[in-house]
Amino acid sequence: MTLYGLIGYPIDHSWSAVYFAEKFRLEGITDQEYRLFPLQNLNQFSSLLEKNPDLLGLNVTIPHKVNILPLLDELDNTAKTVGAVNTIKIIRSHERIRTKGFNTDTSGFLLSLPENLPDSKVLLLGTGGASKAVAYVLHQKKMEVIWVSRNPNDEKTIRYSDVTAEMVYQCRVIINATPVGMYPHTMEIPPIPYTSITPQHLLYDLIYNPEETRFLAEGRKRGARIMNGKQMLMHQAESAYRIFIDPEN
User: Fold this and answer.
1) Could you tell me the pTM of the whole model?
2) Which one of 3, 69, 230, 240 is most buried, by most CB atoms within 10 A?
3) What are the C-alpha distances in Å from 42 to residues 14, 22, 48, 84, 204?
4) Cα–Cα distance between 60 and 8 in angstroms, integer?
5) CATH class of the domain at 2-103+232-245
6) Is the dihedral of CA 158, 166, 175, 209 positive or negative?
7) Could you list the active site residues?
8) Which residues on adjacent β-strands are paired with residue 101?
9) At 111, phi and psi to the nearest 5?
10) Residue 162 contacts by C-beta under 8 Å, 6 or more apart in sequence?
11) All structural domains of the chain with their residue ranges
12) Do domains 2-103+232-245 and 106-230 have the same CATH topology?
């Protein structure tokens, strides 16, 4: 039995195992399995690989997408540029275990974007691994990104308290790349001035559980287009699976 899985913490909310179970069922794949591996600390990473000899691929989610990098043997070019990994291919031989990191959040986000994006600056909430992948794609599309964080660590990032109503009005694309509002903390919401949102806005929440976060509900109430992260999840999962089974990677 070939095994794949997801590492992160917490991951009770994740639909990845359900997604892959349905994929394997529909495609008649009976010799592969996908499991959730909640790792609170990456000190457990090596032992996870050793204790599961059938494990040949992992997806990575919060909070490990950045901190996993130094633990891997190799990174592909996109993962190096982004500075985050969400997919790990595990290559096993009699001598050793090798790991290679990839970032399929980039292709997942790109494929999920609507064709007619508003032509404006982008307000990007969060500075973690997912936001790094989002920013990578937006920069390729020549869109200007304003990063927002609770704890800015560079000059290009502002605090939530710096986000003005005028800034929200001008940034017609607002993306939540934080876990704020994710199950089970569904009453939480990023602290920005929602009163400036208009029907010309697109609000995109990378969270997919719940399907409509409070962040998206505020946009919907004001006539904005809203999107959750379900399509991104599916696209990045398919890209990750192709990496897992491709002997050339």
Assistant:
1) 0.95
2) 240
3) 19, 29, 10, 15, 30
4) 6
5) alpha beta
6) positive
7) 65
8) 75, 88
9) -70, -20
10) 148
11) 2-103+232-245, 106-230
12) yes
Per-residue pLDDT tens digits of the chain, which is 249 residues long? 999 999 999 998 899 999 999 999 999 999 999 999 999 999 999 999 999 999 999 999 999 999 999 999 999 999 999 999 999 999 998 879 999 999 999 999 999 999 889 988 999 999 999 999 999 999 999 999 999 999 998 888 999 999 999 999 999 999 999 999 999 999 999 999 999 999 999 999 999 999 999 999 999 999 999 999 999 999 999 999 999 998 887
Q: Is 175 within 8 Å of 181 (Cβ atoms)? A: no
Q: Which two tokens mark 156?
A: 């290009």
Asked if 234 contacts 19 with a C-beta cutoff of 8 angstroms, the reply is yes
Give yes or no for a cis peptide into 10 (omega within 30° of 0): yes
